[in-house]
Amino acid sequence: MNKKKIFVITLVTMLSASWNMAVSGTVYDEPQKMEQKKEMPNPEKAAKKRTDDMDKVLNLTEKQYKKIYKLYLKEEKEKVEKMFSHVGGQLPMNGGMPPMGMGQPPMDGGFPPMGGGHPGFGNGSPMMPPMPNKEKMAEEIKKNEEKMLKKIRKILKDDQYAKWLEVKPKAPERPLPPSERPNPQDL
Fold this sequence. Notes:
Layout: H1 2-24, H2 43-58, H3 62-86, H4 134-155, H5 158-167
């Protein structure tokens, strides 16, 4: 009887051990991270895509293709330069926000000022530049677009340019700010 008990106990122990080994060897998928890594903007890739899109619609000649690509490449490089100049010459992380303290207290050991302000948040400090004037930016964008259209006009034939104006990607319309929206009672 003793031998039977020892045999049963040994058998149960071995089965239990093999079960544990089988379960511990199972690899479960890690949950997908919701955070998306921003990749480095690639002006060449963006310019090629824009030129290819234009070529599909207008059947550009090789000479036109090269000129349009060069034009778009210059514009894309300027966009990247502007983006980096707004974030202190670094790759934008955290949506362009300045780096946080990583859970560390301020270097002087104190708390932020009682006014609630934190140095570096839009007050003109070197950490984050002040927000540019929206009207000024909109005017600059419009001027740049007009310049671009003039340059494209010189490269394309008349019929190509007319077709391009019909199908070119349009900037999405932005909703009016609350102060400029019509009052529902007036409608």
